[in-house]
């Protein structure tokens, strides 16, 4: 903590530079900070003390870097917005993909991110606005105003109960704290920041498969029962929906909970466009023959013959319709990247039989030249240090040893093993989780591109 900052009974996350009390409680501050990474908030401006005039706001908040605005209304709603770009009164339209609005629903801050292709705000001399749509302290009064606009999909009833009268408006400077001790070096470089998350979401949103006939790359998840295949889809879906979702059934049972082949498209927000990938979920692998997902079925899936919602039957393999089986599926129906989902806590316990089963799947996938990646899940359960703080993932020598072990057991390069923590019991999104999950997804898209590139160059070769 710097010598200027003093805590006033609000724990480590909130500090102040002037003797004014923050209205934001420690609990709520912690939950907002979790959305922004390893940050500290310090109060810059408090409307009830400094006045609701734009000049008072700008005097205290201009050129302060990323800021978080928290407003309170008479009905008791707590809501506001985050922007990573300074206020400077430049008159410019600001593009900032990390901007979001939030509203506490009980203890949980529910976020609404800026819709893609829209400005985050206009940087004028007035009071803060988000997307030139939501205006705080409008007309220098304790009022919030929602004008028509498409920058944010705001529902004013859920956001602030349609009560536009403010009782307080505070603006906090968001200070990024040093991520890790300089003495320790991460063995993989990760930026645990809101900007990095926004950048990854932008890259994924704007990704275009290398081949024009393929509008969405198909990523197949294969792995033992309970490894976290369905949870990975749920986690990615949650990030883009901006809230925790559980569309795919996940949980624990003796045998695979997922019994159907499911192809899940993901939308960029509730009413957003479909994103350029489809996650394909399968039944879990089991070591016994005649149980769990069958290698023959995997082969049919890889070649694009198996329809969505096909119910697996471990005792008889998938039989494609005759006319379909006679013609090869088009490239867009095939699988472009295979992801082996492996539970970090079970790597050492993997039986020889299961290892052999995965090896035979690998041989099949190799023969088709499809890109392959390992997703190592449950890093939180594997290492208490990581459970405490996900940012210590790449400092943990235990996790490093697990990555090496899974790499040698499956015969994939260490660089193709991506550790993640899926959303499992959380009720809200967390920046660190998002960064890891999005990094893994981004890598899957890169690998799918390598495969498509390879297929194209084969097709281009003279016969
Ligand atoms: N702590 C923690 N739990 C996880 C993680 N990923 C998944 N889980 C939990 O592990 C259990 C199994 O997850 P699923 O996603 O259903 O696993 P699956 O691979 O789809 O399993 P089957 O469909 O049964 O083959 C669930 O209770 C999840 O909440 C993770 O990264 N960390
Ligand atoms: Mg499942």
From TrEMBL:
What residues does the TLDc domain cover? 18-175
**MF annotations from Gene Ontology:** GTP binding
Source domain of life is Eukaryota
Biological process terms in GO annotation:
immune response
The record's SUPFAM superfamilies line, in alphabetical order, gives: P-loop containing nucleoside triphosphate hydrolases
Give the UniProt family note.
Belongs to the IFI44 family.
Looking up PANTHER family in the UniProt record yields: INTERFERON-INDUCED PROTEIN 44 (PTHR14241), INTERFERON-INDUCED PROTEIN 44-LIKE ISOFORM X1-RELATED (PTHR14241:SF19)
Protein name (record)? TLDc domain-containing protein
Species the sequence originates in:
Cyprinus carpio
Q: Which gene encodes it?
A: LOC109053689
